[in-house]
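Q: Can I see a sequence and its folded structure?
A: Here is a first one.
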Amino acid sequence: MEKGKKKAQSPEWSQLDSDLLVDIFNRLTLTDLLAGVSHVCEDWRMAASKTRFFLPGTGLDLRLVDALPPKEIAIYINLLRSCLLTETTQFDHVQLPEEVILPNDVVIAIARRSTAVKSLQLPQISVNHFSPSLLAKTLPFWTNLTSFEASSSRSTAVACIRLLNLHCNNLAHLGLYGLIEKRQAQAIVSYLPGIESLDIRTSFFSESALDIIIDGLKNLKKLNLRHAICGDDDDMCDFTLKVLQGRGAKKLKKEVRDKLKSLEQLVYCGGETCRSCSWFYKVDVDHIHV
């Protein structure tokens, strides 16, 4: 090396570009990431919070949180909370955990950072967690939604449907999974009359509820009834208990089946002829379709 020339100095680790740090940290295990890297300095902590969960571009996928050991879940949620408070990126799609229930303040922070989201599927485990009070705080940020799917709680479904009507004027697809009675059906028709696609697969629904939906949703083009079980209109909670005992499920009436033929797309497993559903009808499984 010639005299007078100084050796080029490499930047310190703490000064590395955040995108480069994220690329490096993506090569580590989640345990090393959360137990070690995140405690080095604030810059590394922020980069660690983006690793594995912040998708390339502007996506946020939190489903990997479900795979974390219980002790590390709280660490990551704290990292995520810190990042959301300082992150300015707007996410255009979000995937929430399927099993881990995020604290309300984290969910609200995610909503603030995802106003461009058009499709949202709430995890089924959170049927009681995503209450009307929480949706009232998040849906004002999700006004661009065209598709919304969530589990249906008998006590909160109508209030949630009203909130969708209030904040999501472009909604075209609705997915509700749980118990669909006349009350819920009337709310869908009254508050969301313009939806074109309805998914109630794996749900328990009453005959009159389906009638209300078919007659009331004039723009309905697609209906998913896969593995959904039809029952009487009396007490649907009592009906659910009967179904779980292998009795009480009803075949769709001919007039209802005729109405369903007018739809552009119908997904229906066949009810009593479906291997997965035949038990509810007490049908001989040796004579049904796969």
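Q: Show me another, different protein.
A: A second, unrelated one:
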Amino acid sequence: MFKFVVLLSAALAFAASASLRVNPDELHVIWDTIEKDIRVRQQEAELEIRNLLEPLRILVDDAREKLANDLQEANAVIQDEIRRIEQEPHGRDIARCIQQAEEELRRVDDELVQEHNEAFERIQREAEEEVQRAIQIASSIIDEIEEFGRRVESCRDVECASELDVEIVTLYERIVRDLDGALEIANEAALIKLGLELDQAQLDHERYEEGTRHLLEEVRACVDERV
């Protein structure tokens, strides 16, 4: 590994020297060294990006599970209040009032679950699209270096070799930036932005309490109704 690093450094230093003239054989040596480094970097970057997809989906599944647990706990509080009202002495049949309250509570919960599931699906889709965009950036580098390699292979004179020698440095530096950028895009989407948006899409307890408070007021009005 140390030997390869030395060769890479030497190749880049040699290629960076615009005053040096190189022949096609020397160009091949320089390109072979740099191409190997680019391919290793590309493979590692693409693998790292692809490996974010599964944790991304796990985070979304965990968010769904947390929502379900939070909603179950919040629902239980309202159910307990309905049961308490039901057990109070009323002197008349209040089954219709209780049934209406339970139906309304199910409706509120169903709408809330649907709303949050749509949000989770959107968040996951957008994060996966960004990761796929990063994968595309990383994978497109293979086409670039293969195209450049064909130019190296077709080079037959010192003038051509010297021109490509200078281009190699620019190509290498840009590819390294592109790979770093792709990793940044993927990490931002799958680890940072995703987590923030999933937290924001969780159960709004104040909103739920406000909605169910109205429900409890209605059931109380129903049972207190004079026939």
